[in-house]
Every structure is written in C-alpha cells, then in structure tokens.
Amino acid sequence: MSIEYQDCTFLNSANALFISELFAKYLENNATVDSSWRQYFDLLRDDVKVVNMDLRGPSFAAQTAKIIGAFDSSVSKKDPDRATVASPQQTDSALDLSRDSLRAIMIIQAYRISGYLKANLDPLGLKNSNLHPQLNPETYGFTKNDWDRPIFVNKMLGLETTTLSEIINVLENIYCRSIGVEFMHIQDLAQKTWILEQIEQPRRRINLTSSDKRFILRRITAAESFEKFLAVKYVGVKRFGLDGAESLIPALEQILIRSSQLGLEEAVLGMPHRGRLNVLCNFMNKPFRAIISEFLGNLEYTHQTGDVKYHMGFSTNRTFDGINVHLTLNSNPSHLESVNSVVLGRVRAKQEQRKDKLRQKVMGILMHGDAAFVGQGVVAETLELSELRGYSTGGTIHIIINNQIGFTTDPKHARSSFYPTDVAKMILAPIFHVNGDDPEATVRVAKIAAEFRHKFNADVIVDIICYRRFGHNETDEPRFTQPLMYEKICQHETTREIYIKELIKEGILGKQEVDNILAEEKSYLVQEFEYGLTYKPRKVNYLEGAWSNLKTASAETRGCSTGVDIKELQRIGAKLCDVPKGFNLHSNLNRFIAARKKAITTGKGIDWSTSEALSFATLLTDGFTIRLSGQDSQRGTFSQRHSVYIDQKTEESYIPLNNIQEKQASYEAINSPLSEAGVLCFEYGYSQAEPNTLTCWEAQFGDFANVGQVVMDQFITSAEAKWLRMSGLVLMLPHGYEGQGPEHSSARIERFLQLCGEDNMQVVNCTTPANYFHVLRRQMYRNFRKPLIIFTPKSLLRHKMAVSKIEEISGLTTFRRVLFDEKLMCEDNEVKRVVICSGKVYYDLYEERQKRGINDIVFMRLEQMYPFPSKMILSNLSRFPQAEVIWCQEEPANMGPWTFVDRRIEDVLIEINGMYKRPQYVGRPISASPATGSAIQHTNEQAALVDKALTLNIK
Asked: Are 885 and 878 spatial neighbours (Cβ–Cβ below 8 Å)?
C-alpha cells in the first residue's frame, strides 16, 4: 500500500481532529494559537484559499490533504534549498516542528488503519511479516536522525510532547502484538472513538490478576485434556476436536461473565461441529459421562432417527458471579453457516418473550470456521439482517475459529480477501483479530466484544487465528495437501504449554501447581469415563417452557374445529374495513375496502385476501400473535393483501389488523430484504422458540423457495426427527401455471412431497378461501406443531369462482382435506370417471365440464397432500368402484404431486377392488423445465390436458 492511502482516511478519527480545531481557532483569532502553529498556518494561507473551509464538516479529510500538499509546496517555494526531509540544522524552526507533528499524526493514523496487517497473529508464523510501507516512518519523510527529536502530538496515545521512537514503540505495543484491530472503516464516530479509547488509553486496558490467569490456565487445561483423553480412548473416531483452538473456551467464559454483569439473562449459541463436543462439556457443562455414552453408541434420547453427536444441541443454566444465565446451543447440520439466522430468529423470539425491548437480556453468539464464514452466502445475508427493524437482535458476537485452512483448501484458493472477516465490513462491524496462542489476549478481546455489543447493540467480530492440529477430522491425513503447515504444527507447542512457560516466568505459579491442575482434570475425566460406561441416557422432555402446553402429534389430536361465530366475523370484518379520519388512502384501496365490506356483510363472495384477513384477525383476538415476513409481504406480491395502508401524503402507516379491539395480540408484517435462505432460516428459528405465534414466510413466487432448499432439507423437514425440535412455521408459496414462464409457475411441489415422512409436516394446496381460512387457524388450535407448506394461488386470488360463503368459515366448520362434488348429475353407478386433482387446475376442469355438459365425470380435490388422507379418499371412491380414476395435474409428469400420490391412490384402489388397479396420469409430459416460456404454448398445453382429463377412452 502506498502513501496515497493517507489522503482521505488518516484523519477521520476524533482524536485527529485537533488540527482542524486548531486551524479553526487560528482563523477566528490567530493570537489564540501557539506561535509555531501560527507560523505554519500563515504559510498555508499564502498558498491555499481556506478562509471559507468547513474544517469540522464531512469534507475535512480531503481538505486536510490539500493543506498537507500546500505545506510542502509552500516550503519548497519559500526556501528552494530545503529538502522534503528536514535536516538536523532545521529542527528548531516552527516549520519543522509543525511538520513533524503532522507527519507523526499521519503515522499514528496509519497504525490505526493498518497496524493489524503487521500484528503477530499467526501462531505458526506462516504469514509474510514484511514491514508494510504505510507503517514505515521513512514513508512520511522521517530519517534515522529524527527518532529522538521532541514531537508535539497533543495527547494522542496519552502523549503530549514525545519522540518518534516512543510513538512507534507505543503503536507497536498497541496494534502489532497479539491483537490486531480493524475499526477505522466504521462510520459511527461514537463507536470508533469508544474502541480507540479501549485499546489506546492505559486506564481502559484490562489488567488480569493472578487469579484470572490461573482461571485461564484451568480452562485451557480442561479443553486440551478433553481432546487428548478422547484421542486415546477412541483412536480414529471422528470428534472434530478443538485441538489448536483451546483459547475459545476461556473466551466464551469471559463473554458470558462480562455480559451477565451487564444484564444478560440468556444466550443462544450456534456453531459448526469443530470443537462442539469440547464446548458442550467445558462451556455448556454437559456431563462428560453423557458424551462417553454417545461414543458408545447411545443417544442422549431415543427417538425416530436422531443425529451424530457433534450435531446435537443442548440447554443448561450456568451461574457467573452469582448471576444465572440460561444457555442454548442450537443443533446444527453439516451445512455449517445455515444455523446463523436460525439462532438469531430464536434470539428475537426470546427477546420478545422476555419483553426485552432494549435487546440486552438475550444475546446471540455465533461461532464460525474461517473458510465457511467467507464462503457461505448465508453469512452475508445474516449480517444484512442485523440492523433491520424486523430482524434486529441488538447485535451478535461472532467468533471465527480461524484454522487458516478449509477441509484441504488453502486461504489463497478459498477467498479473495486477505482475511475471512472482510465480509463483515459490509455492516461496518469492528473486527478484532487475535493470536489463538495468546489466551490472555483472547480473553481481553472477548471482554471488549461483550462490552461493545452491550453499549452499541451492534455486531462485533472476534477472529481467533489458530490452527487445526489434526486433519479435518481425526481420520483424515492433512499432509496429503498441506505438508509444510503440518510439519510446523507437529513441532509446535500447544497453547497450554506456551502459556505455562509464561506464567512460570512471571512467577504466577510453579511447576507443582501446574501438575496439580492437570492431575485434577485427568482424574475428573477418568472418573466420568467410568460412569459413562454404564450411563443410561435420560428421557428428555423437550416440551418445556413456552412449549409446555403442547404434545406430540397423535391420531386423536388431528381433528380441530376452527369455525368462528358469524356475528364475531362480521364485527371483526367491520373493524378491518375502518380507516382513520384524515388518513389519505390510495383511491384504488377505497374499492378494495368496499368490496371486502360487502362480502363480509352479505356473507357471499369472500375472496382469498378477505379470508386471510379474517383468519389473522380472529387469531389475534384470541391471543395469538402473527409474524409474516417475505419480500413485499405487507402489500402482497399480487397487490392482494394490503395489510398495511400508507398515507399518500405523509407515508405514515396504518395497520387494520392491529386495531380490531383494545385487548388483542399484535400483527407484524415485514417487508424482508431480497433474501430467501437467510430470512427463511430466521423465521424458522423464531418458530422454534415461539409456538404461540403464527410465524409465516411468504415467497414472492413459489420458485423463490428453491434458494432456501438447505433450510427445508436440513431444518424444517427433519429437525423433529433428528433433534426433537418442533416448529409451526408456515411457508406460503405462490404456485400455479398461468403462462408466466418456467420459474414463476412452480413452487416445486414434488420436492416437498419427497421430503415427507414420519409425520414431519403438512402440505396443502387449497382451492377455496374457506379452506385457507381454516388451515391457518388449525395451525394454532391443534395441541402440537408441525411445519405447514401452503401452495397459495395467483390467478385464484381474483377468480370469480374461487370465493366462499361466510357459513363455510363459521360455526363448527373445519379444514377439509378432500373436497368432493356434493351434487352429482347422475347416480353413483353411472359415474364413468373420477378425476382427482389439486389446486388451480380444478377450476379449468370444472368450467370445461360445464361448457361440455358432461354429467358422468366427478371431481375430487386433494386439498391436503400430506399427511395423505387415505381414509377419506377411500370413503369417497368406494361409491364408484366401476369408475376409472384419473390423476390430473398442470405440472410435467416428473414434477408436481404425481410421483407421490400415484402409489397411495393405487393402494386405495386395491383396497376397494380387491385387485391391482392404478390411476392414470393426465398432465404435461416429462420435462427438464417446469413450464414453457410462451403464453400461447401454455394455453394450448393447458387446453390439451383438460380435454384429455374429460375425454373417455384416453388409454
């Protein structure tokens, strides 16, 4: 980096503004300025028109650069014989003094900006430690003869008049030892000034007592002993050990100790599998005997499928200096960083449960690997959520376990930035790099991070630069790909060994005390190992706290009446149609509200939007909160919802759903950022912690869910089976073939149905507003929670036939899993064909049947595809054993529900007929793409499949 780096950045700190203040005073009254500075400013005024310069304004940095340039040109013009670098004979002049001060300040600012690049951060010494030119005094015109000359720096670094030698010594100690700080990119002056004070002012620095240092040693000893013990007992067994990063354990302890002093009551943690077992034992206090039992093949609890031990979560209570803190380590699959937003969603829900408006009682701590942090896009999505109204959690502490390697991939092949932390600069987060072999420095950084998060409610990054003593796992041979790195690691002392030498040198403890600490830890592990051999895993009650009123699903809990009294529906509906006096509503919304009011008053023509609003409103008046997020979800992608009105003159908002009655729950509709995976993870995490909120994520189009496929595969559909964690999350995925091209046609129904098993979720494709009303209410009134996937319509939002009567959502009505033609035009034995379908295609079939006057074909609508309603289908199809059965869908044969429903319908038909019989398929042929991009071709295809479904003898 060249000297040009200084011109717009080096004076951005508050501590560097004293030159501008001095110059401002000079302009007001030059007698108030020291004579040496007055001479300097006199020279500047001869060459630069500065009288009207706003030296306190945002352009100050650029202006100051002009002043510096003007100074050098002034000197050379007035005294051509003077060199750029002052000679020893000139050091007493005012110009030399002022120039020395200015250049010294430039060096100080350079260290603040770039000192971390020179810091001693790599335990293995693999990084190039060449002096960076912006940190070299010669870059600024100093020579070897200038190091001991007095320089005025106006109390910067706690110094007033000092020498270059002392300045560099102080800067090296602050910025270039075991801690490297990146903070000058921060635009918030208060944050930047606070960090500056923490690291530069001696009174702010953390002084560790002998007791503190013994504590650190004990925690490192526990971490190292844990890994060594398992390595001996279970040779070659995967444990993804923390070896090389043991400083993480005292760092986590320090974060919780300091945060609890500042009011923290609960923390939710997310982390990958490396070091997870160590964290569980030595930080979460999970009994070592339970971990041993898992190595023997016993799960902590017995249930459907489970997961490997280094993916499991855990909850516990810990006490720090008499303050109780509840800790939750979230379960996490191998897709490492997806857990980030899940954790933050849980934190947000827990903050609201505790009415933690300041977001100080509950905090998220996320641990990352260096390769994953920079490589996974969901990390950037999570960071982006940090300051948004609907997603902020008051700041997260991010800890990167920087192994300086991926699985087998070197950083130079894994990222374009020098450090993996550069992605965090997108939210202007401070970044603290620290040498993992210096546990005291790691603890100091952890304390600063905790205090920064508390003070500013903002994210902070701690990058623990360490190494991975073994391969990616304990069965891997790392020398295949990194022979030089692992040659160094083999010769490198452990963090504990290095720290012991330092403590003995300091006289903190002797060898006997060191041996005693180690012996105590080994004794504990041996004893716990013996207990673990006969340890009986406990039966976990995972329905605790907010979940205590819920149960696991059973056949007896499926039925649920969700109708509402008609008078109550009309009362609530009237409130939904109210608009405050003086509110400047968009003219088109007057028609929208009038149509809604008419439908509710007459009880006829209730459309999707009105049905949804009534469902939400009745849940709110019953005490259930509602959280709806997604891209443009307040208005609705198809301009159908309008749950938030915007004043056309002031842009103030009015939310009818929050103004139904005095005592009601709250409705929150959030227009999310253009993110799917990150936001969907967040909402899933929220639903994990809060069962009494209808938590909904709406895709702008159904295919947008593709970007969140990892969330569905590894969390939403499998968490209950793997980790015994329920979720009532609702996914709203607009789906339907209207000639809008490949992507905006399909929500990939087949993918969700393929994931169905072990009663893990519900998949519905409603064809009536009434059924939509009921399925939303059913989600909250059952005494269990399952994820709900709703394939919502697009054209049906305003289809003249896709409306319901108020009687269909009132009284004892409920969600209907199968809808059947209730009025047949012929006798049962005259029915020639039963067409089973799902979703929008029903209306195309119905209209064509009416148009053709067909009487002997009946329709059955499969409103719920999973759990598959076999008994209900059996009951209806048994009436027509003679009829052929058709499955009709809009999607290609290799997509949509066909490959899921065919065998299940076949089983029903075999039971009816006592012999093999299967349904016939009608729909689009097998295709690589979900749909055509031609509207004309779409119309022709749709007409052809409808015709085929209604035409006899289709074989």
From this structure: no
In this predicted model, what pLDDT tens digit does every residue of 639-680 receive, in sequence order?
Answer: 999 999 999 999 999 999 999 999 999 999 999 999 999 999
CATH C-level class of 820-950: alpha beta
The CA distance from 137 to 326, in Å, is 51
Q: Which two tokens stand for residue 602?
A: 């007459």
pLDDT in tens, 692-710: 999 999 999 988 999 999 9
Q: Over the stretch 305-334, which tens digit does the pLDDT of each residue have?
A: 677 766 788 899 999 889 999 999 998 887
Give which of 131, 187, 132, 223 is closest to 442, Cα–Cα: 223
Note whether 315 and 331 are within 8 A (CB): no
pLDDT, one tens digit per residue, over 763-792 is 999 999 999 999 999 999 999 999 999 999
Q: What is the pLDDT averaged over residues 239-256?
A: 96
Give the whole-angstrom CA distance, residue 60 versus residue 209: 43
CB atoms within 10 A of CB 873: 25
Q: In degrees, to the nearest 5, what angle opens at C-alpha 194 toward C-alphas 191 and 196?
A: 110
Whose CA is closest to 208, among 405, 387, 447?
Answer: 447
Q: Which amino acid is residue 813, in one-letter code?
A: T
Pick the CATH number of 210-540 from 3.40.50.1820, 3.40.50.970, 1.10.390.10, 1.10.10.10: 3.40.50.970
Label residue 784 left, alpha or beta by phi (over 0 means left) and psi (-120 to 50 means alpha). beta
Among 223, 215, 230, which Cα is nearest to 244's? 223
Angle at which helix 35-47 crosses helix 60-78, to 10 degrees, equals 90
Query: Tokens in use for 611?
Result: 């049905």
Q: Structure tokens of 236? A: 């070659």
d(CA 106, CA 116): 16
Is 555-809 a domain of CATH 1.10.443.10? no
269 forms beta bridges with 329, 365
Sort 135 into a burial class: Cβ within 10 Å, 0-12 / 13-18 / 19+.
Answer: buried
Cβ neighbours of residue 475 closer than 8 Å, sequence gap 6 or more: 236, 237, 238
Q: Give the dihedral of Cα atoms 912, 917, 918, 922; nearest 10 deg.
A: -100
Distance CA 761, CA 749 (A): 13
Is residue 49 classed as helix, strand or coil in its secondary structure?
Answer: coil
SS3 of residue 462 by DSSP:
strand
Answer whether residue 76 shows pLDDT above 90: no
| DSSP states along 484-541 | HHHHHHHHSPPHHHHHHHHHHHHTS--HHHHHHHHHHHHHHHHHHHHHHHTPPPPPP-
d(C-alpha 837, C-alpha 949), whole Å: 10
For residues 729 and 731, give the distance between their C-alpha atoms in angstroms, rounded to a whole number: 7
Picking from 320, 244, 729, 711, the residue whose alpha carbon sits closest to that of residue 489 is 244
pLDDT computed for residue 311 by the predictor: 74
- Before 867, cis peptide (omega within 30)? yes
CA distance 749 to 790: 10
Distance of alpha carbon 13 from alpha carbon 203, whole angstroms:
20
Cβ atoms of 270 and 367 closer than 8 Å: yes
Indicate the length of the chain as a whole number. 955
- What residue has token string 């750029």? 84
* CA 656 to the chain's CA centroid: 30
- The model carries a pTM of 0.89
Phi, psi (5° rounding) for residue 20?
A: -65, -40
Can 555-809 and 820-950 be said to share one CATH topology? yes
User: Could you tell me which residues come within 8 angstroms of residue 222 by beta carbon, excluding any fewer than 6 positions away?
Assistant: 249, 282, 521
What are the residue ranges spanned by the domains of the chain? 3-176, 210-540, 555-809, 820-950
| Angle at the Cα of 194 from the Cα atoms of 189 and 195, rounded to 5 degrees | 105
Structure tokens at 480: 């295949």
Tokens standing for residue 84: 């750029």
What is the Cα–Cα distance from 679 to 381, expressed in whole angstroms? 8
Residue 127 contacts residue 121 (beta carbons within 8 Å): yes
